[in-house]
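User: Please predict structures.

Assistant: First:
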Amino acid sequence: MATAWDDPRDCVRLAVMAEERGIESIWFGEHSHLPVGEDHAFVRQMPEFYRRIPDPYVVLAAIAARTRVIRLGTGIALPGQGDPLHLAKTVASLDVLCGGRFEWGVGYGWNETELRDHGIDPRYRMSRFGEVLAAVRGLWTHDRFTFGGKHIQFAECWSYPKPVQAPGPPILLGCRATARAFEQLVDHCDGWLPSIEQALDTADVSIAKLRSRFAEAGRDPASLQLTFMDSRGFWLDVDTDTYKTKRRVKRATVERVRDLGADRLIVGMPLFTVDTIEPMLDAVAELIPAAA
């Protein structure tokens, strides 16, 4: 998981090099903008790159055209801020373009000013989020579909293309292990995308709860997908040596995630430039044997 400093085209170059190194997937986050007037928990330590995040769907579409096997994901996207009619078409089109390699990592959004700028009351971010996902799922899986919710309404319509992956790309919810978030995960998603900093210590208990809830909902507990995310690795703007010695996830953590039965660990890669892409990627690729 990485983000470019200035030029989105560097993200494409990064993906090609990642595929050459046998890295399984590449992920980019989403923020439509960074409000200048900030009042949130991270304001004093917000990295510069948060002002420069490119559109992940556009970047991943460009990567799809230049790669063959590496999976492409959003880490994380904010569908609750979007229009489900546009999102269903955008994500399905991307899944077609990449031949079914897309993973939709999603979350609620934590920046209340950003939410308000989209006309969303932060108090209802979770309920709107659930309706957006339900509407997108319906548009993917029905020839004609209508939706009438509290936050989302649209008349019966056709929406094409449909995704290559049926019933759609895997939807992985990045959330804390709370009752309400897990309820939405079971209702709308295919897997859990927790931060290792927030979730690893109690992951055994949380995963058992999720599998139990899958069973209660009539879903196969074994179908629960697990992707852990190292958000600490990309948070600070550091050089390659500092990353390898102080910020990169430890091999023991990779092994712990593997033993939990996770499908993958997304390794955070800090700010890169054209000159630092290769050594940064080499530092990530060194962890692959620990995951085997």
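Second:
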Amino acid sequence: MRIVVLGSAAGGGFPQWNCNAPTSRGVRTGSLRAKPRTQASLAVSADGERWLLLNASPDFRQQVAANTMLWPQDGLRHSPIAAVILTSGEIDHVAGLLSMRESQPFALWAAPPVLAALAANPIFDALSPRSVERHAVAPNGPFPIAGRGGGLGLTVTAFPVPGKVPLYLEGQAGDDLAGAPDETLGLEIAANGARFHYIPGCAAMTPELRARLQGSPLVFFDGTLWRDDELITTGVGAKTGRRMGHMSIDGPDGTVAAFSDLDTGRRILIHVNTTNPVLIEDSPERAALAEAGWEVAEDGMEIAL
């Protein structure tokens, strides 16, 4: 199984277009050891020819241009991308679908609340049902994922994780911003005897999630913020990580602590916000992560399982 990180940043990318915080300013000017990143998405293939996208980033076109395995290969119109699966309905997970509207056949997989949100917005009607088959994902049971033209050799298990309704639906959610149980999904992808987990958004570690991750050879996990109050202390926002549906990395309830006694293999943070100091390669926070056995995803990172 081949895994390619198309994008590794949170919404808006790194640097975010209107952010002048020290991290964003430093990567623009070259004064910090940090790499620009596009918004989070993975491409996965069992055979190296037909690919499944994990979320459709707003930076989809840029990501395809940067990865030759996703270029058209055959005829005047073609794409190796056979299917897309969505972990939530957030803008940074679905906006790339609008760049895939060119009558190209592929299959779209998502939980019912996400499919309903797409169906309620007429702009997504640009994805004609004649080209794009929409399939509801049933959580907790493994299923062979298919694209237009048949199976991809990949088995997916989708499972609910604590999260939040998309930003554009908060006004309809009242006091229950967590939304439906399958509003936010984690994924286990398996092929040819290998498997890994992809969880780009998670509000809390639960006993159920711990049990799923126990023994996983590879985990991509929500790395949005270093501290829960990061946006507030940097002066760029008023929301905490919890309010946005994300665990922080540091702290007694953070990701590093939650994984400290979990038996997992390689651990990689993804969906990293533009304010997060772990993006700075020689920062104390990055060193602390490495000491704890964590990596930070980069665009173009490739893993073979």
